[in-house]
Amino acid sequence: MRLKPGALLRFYSLCGILVQVAATKSKARGSQGQFPLTQNVTVVEGGTANLTCRVDQNDNTSLQWSNPAQQTLYFDDKKALRDNRIELVRASWHELSISVSDVSLSDEGQYTCSLFTMPVKTSKAFLTVLGVPEKPQITGFTSPVMEGERMQLTCKTSGSKPAADIRWFKNDKEVKDVKYLKEEDEVRKTFTVSSTLDFLADRSDDGAVVSCRVDHESLNSTPQIAMQVLEIHYTPLVKIISSNSWPEEGQSIVLTCESKGKPVPEPVLWTKDGGELPDPERMVVNGRVLSISFLNKTDNGTYRCEAKNPIGRNSTEYVLIVHDPNGLTQTGPDHALIGGIVAVVVFVTLCSIILLGRYLARHKGTYLTNEAKGAEDAPDADTAIINAEGSQVNAEEKKEYFI
Questions:
Q1: Coil, strand or helix: which one is 156?
Q2: How many angstroms separate the Cα of 99 from the Cα of each of 8, 63, 102, 227?
Q3: From first to last of its 403 residues, what are the pLDDT tens digits of the chain?
Q4: How far apart are CA 19 and CA 25, in angstroms?
Q5: Global confidence as pTM
Q6: Which residues is 240 bridged to in the sheet?
């Protein structure tokens, strides 16, 4: 069967229409199946925020950005809100990007990207604005501070969002035992943070550097720091140093009085045995140094060095013993120890002899020699002697005694 030319043309036209309708429906289904893609943004106050909305497939469908108050910022490439801080970065069928410069805390909130399909599809992007903390300040320090007084130093910073963190350091060593307080500004939604360092002043703290460090995510790992150098006043600390550990007669000795205090101590005062130095010609004081020449036994004694400042006074002593250079130096055994041991041995020996004598005295007795035993049937030795000799008088002469 052959078709007429007119019928064939109509057939081709009908096929073209069907293809166009199918393609239009396919594009519509592709556009309707897409959702705009956005990302949350965090920016420091005063910085620039970039908001980007993307669509992978889009059939000439418009994109729009709106602020948290649902005001249109940009519709495709057309600016809708009169705000010089808001600018177009890129506009196409697949992307709408805008920037907001000089961001303030009031710009924080939820922004909306809309894809105008049927129905309209949206995606949210939350803009977080970080409040930068102000440079911290340390208060509560009055100079100078007396040793033993209580010190309370306070570090304070405002404008942080979220609340900043405060840390204390003394000569680069962190101090943990501190008080921390934060207060929120209801209007700006920022925080004022303060921390207090409480301690007793000690002379070891004089010249120490106390620092307060503020850490916050808006500072890009570069903390803000406030520093205070401590000045502590304290009474002098005194020490005597000798130039000769074994001074002998005829030699010289130099005694140096080291005194450390704040304010700096006045010139030191040297005394001997509670009084003035007895021989100014040989005992010369030059500042903190006492020099004694041609030492002799009369120089033996206790030398005192005293230092004072407006806070108080302190002193220390040195006992000087001048040795005889001709004296024998005992390098052998300790004779005193040996003499003591010998005395103990003699004493123990004498005690043993006395005890033995007393024991033998208590056991004193008699015995008879074999010459005068007498008869074996005698009841005792005396009877045997009497029986043998026939006389008791001679019996006493036959006895032998032992001690």
A1: strand
A2: 58, 15, 10, 39
A3: 444 444 433 443 333 333 333 333 344 444 455 889 999 999 999 999 999 999 988 778 899 999 999 999 999 999 999 999 999 999 998 999 999 999 999 999 999 999 998 899 999 999 999 999 999 999 999 889 999 999 999 999 999 999 999 999 999 899 998 999 999 998 888 999 999 999 999 999 999 999 999 999 999 888 999 999 999 999 999 999 999 999 999 999 999 999 999 999 988 999 999 999 999 999 999 999 999 999 999 999 999 999 999 999 999 999 999 999 887 544 445 555 677 787 788 888 888 888 877 777 766 544 444 444 444 555 555 555 555 554 444 444 444 444 4
A4: 10
A5: 0.64
A6: 257
Instruction: Give strand ranges (E) for 310-378.
Output: 312-320, 365-368
Whole-angstrom CA distances from 331 to 24, 134, 292, 340, 395 are: 121, 76, 30, 19, 71
Edge-to-edge order in the sheet of strand 95-100: 49-54, 95-100, 86-91
3-state secondary structure 15-67: HHHHHHHHHHHHHHHHHHCCCCECCCEEEECCCCEEEEEECCCCCCCCEEEEC
SS3 145: strand
Give the C-alpha separation, 232 to 311, whole Å.
11
